[in-house]
Write a structure and sequence with these properties.
heterodimer, A: 268 residues, MetI-like fold, 12 helices, globular, B: 282 residues, mainly alpha, 2 domains
Chain lengths: 268, 282
């Protein structure tokens, strides 16, 4: 069993790795179609990406929408998480469950709902509409990360600060927030990525005016499979790599034992 | 004294509600109402009747699509299990550095956008891609069409969803006490029976978690089946999108969306009763 499992495992490593790295050589290809291995190499598609407004505007829209989504999500989720982790009240179980519900509903169902509802509110094809929808979808992830952090919080630290004469506000600003900072950063990051990657709702409601990068990529793959997609894929691939490697290097610099982070779901 | 105490508890009771209120109101307006809108449209578009449900639940096309979706989701879940179990085993039973490298790879795959991974499979399986070239090299004159078939969309979905399975199984395997395996061996269990009666039951919670997650995501999968699958073998999500985009058939689309939602919620409710929903993603 042991050797069989090991060989199978090695095979699976290849299966997982191959599609991740294949976009890198593709992005330098000079073929106008999906040809692999590429007949020759050049940087032309990088130039196309960085000069073509049809790609740059959706990229900018995505960054803008994901940033606004992150801010709105955190503004709503942080107080709610404090309420749910630190207080006991009637209906808490229900509230806990509601926080996770947007994760349980398939995105296509939400897309149909937003398409019709935002149509009535005149929010279809607007940045605001996409931000409002994405915030709803980012709530569960931000909540899961933050509540796990807050549950592990040693409240004796706050009691100690208050017994030393700190006011509740001082305690919150100088004790609670600094200790929660890693959790806050990670949950913001997850909210950002959730919005930046979200495709299905964006396909239905972002339209031409608020077109996000995933929507533009989806349309492009569906229509002509523009090789510029390989460029964007490569850039995203390296962004993810930097994002994952950064905590390792940071903790290595502080000479701590690095711990691989287990991501929460950025589902659908 | 009694009065001030009750005042205190009252005051303490209002805090969580104040903190929850902004999010609660937000979720009501931007989550509950749009969902209710879908439910209402399924009964009222184009006119008030049960016609949409009748069509969706009895029409041959829709029945075929529902069946196809469930079978695909089940098959993808099985494939993810077949792919994920050995890899999780390899991670749990190799040196710390090897395990960390594999975990890094799986994490990379997990964080890479669905669209990027879907595009990669288009390159790999395309007519000018390496797989077709390999088939021609070993002497297959007329290589089969790989792209835009059930095969290509299933393969890509397995690749995209496998990380969920691997993470879940690995986190369980990592916690297995080696002493349990050793004591089973000392009592005479080995090979298949050791695996079947000791190791497999110990990893069952991870398998359950991973399978529910993969199955549920696959049921509502839109992007990959639409881009890589055969247009003649759509899944539910693709058909819903088609009804809305092409025909503006909000009633039919909504009724299908409701069926998908109910199916998803039934599975998750059963799971929630047994394990608790917060464990699924945590």
């Amino acid at each position: 069993m042991n050797t069989f499992m090991r060989w199978a495992g090695c095979f699976v490593v290849l299966f997982i790795a191959a599609p991740l790295v294949i976009v890198v050589p593709m992005s330098f290809s000079n073929a106008s179609s999906l040809q692999f291995p590429p007949p020759g190499y050049w940087l032309g598609y990088y130039r196309s990406y960085f000069t073509d407004m049809d790609w740059l505007i959706p990229t900018w829209n995505s960054i803008l929408i994901a940033s606004a989504t992150t801010i709105l999500t955190m503004a709503l989720v942080v107080p709610a998480t404090f309420a749910l982790v630190r207080h006991k009240f009637r209906g808490k179980g229900f509230a806990d469950l509601m926080m996770l519900m947007p994760m349980a509903v398939p995105h296509i169902v939400m897309a149909v709902g937003y398409y019709s509802y935002f149509g009535e509110l005149k929010l279809v094809h607007t940045h605001l509409g996409v931000i409002l929808a994405h915030t709803c979808l980012s709530v569960p992830i931000a909540f899961l990360v933050l509540s796990a952090n807050l549950k592990g919080f040693d409240r004796n630290l706050e009691r100690a600060a208050q017994s030393l004469g700190a006011s509740p506000t001082q305690t919150f600003l100088h004790v609670t927030l600094p200790i929660l900072r890693p959790g806050l950063i990670i949950s913001s990051l997850f909210a950002f990525i959730q919005s930046f990657d979200e495709t299905v709702v964006a396909i239905f409601i972002s339209g031409r005016d608020a077109e996000t990068l995933p929507r533009k990529m989806f349309d492009s793959i569906r229509q002509e499979a523009d090789p510029v997609i390989a460029v964007i894929s490569t850039l995203l691939f390296f962004l993810v790599m930097i994002g994952i490697a950064a905590p390792y290097f940071a903790s290595a610099l502080r000479s701590r034992v690095p711990k691989p982070s287990r991501p929460a779901s950025v589902a659908y | 004294m009694g009065i001030s105490l009750s005042k205190l508890t009252e005051k303490a009771d209002i805090w969580p509600w104040l903190l929850l209120a902004p999010l609660g109101i937000y979720m009501l307006i931007f989550f509950i109402v749009p969902l209710a809108d879908v439910a209402i449209m399924s009964f009222t578009e184009p006119k008030v009747s049960l016609a949409n449900y009748q069509k969706v639940l009895t029409g041959a096309l829709y029945q075929r699509v529902f069946l196809n979706t469930f079978l695909t989701a089940a098959f993808v879940t099985l494939c993810c299990l077949a792919v994920g179990y050995p890899l999780a085993y390899l991670m749990a039973n190799s040196k710390a550095t090897t395990a960390m490298l594999i975990l890094l790879l799986v994490t990379m795959s997990f964080w890479t956008s669905f669209l990027v991974r879907t595009y990669s499979w288009m390159v790999l399986l395309g007519n000018n891609g390496p797989l077709i070239a390999f088939l021609q090299m070993i002497g297959v004159d007329q290589p089969p069409q790989l792209l835009f078939t059930r095969f290509s969309s299933t393969l890509a979905m397995v690749h995209i969803l496998a990380p969920y399975m691997i993470m879940n199984i690995y986190s369980v395997m990592k916690k297995i006490d080696p002493a349990l395996i050793r004591s089973a061996e000392s009592l005479g269990a080995k090979g298949w029976s050791l695996f079947r009666h000791v190791y497999l039951p110990l990893t069952a919670p991870g398998i359950a978690n991973g399978s529910v997650l993969v199955f549920v995501i696959c049921l509502g999968f839109y992007v990959t089946p639409v881009l890589l699958g055969s247009p003649r073998e759509q899944m539910i999500a693709g058909l819903i999108g088609h009804q809305i985009e092409e025909f503006l058939a909000f009633g039919l689309g909504s009724a299908m969306a409701m069926v998908l939602l109910v199916a998803t919620l039934i599975i998750l409710t059963i799971y929630h009763r047994r394990f608790g929903l917060d464990k699924l993603w945590g």
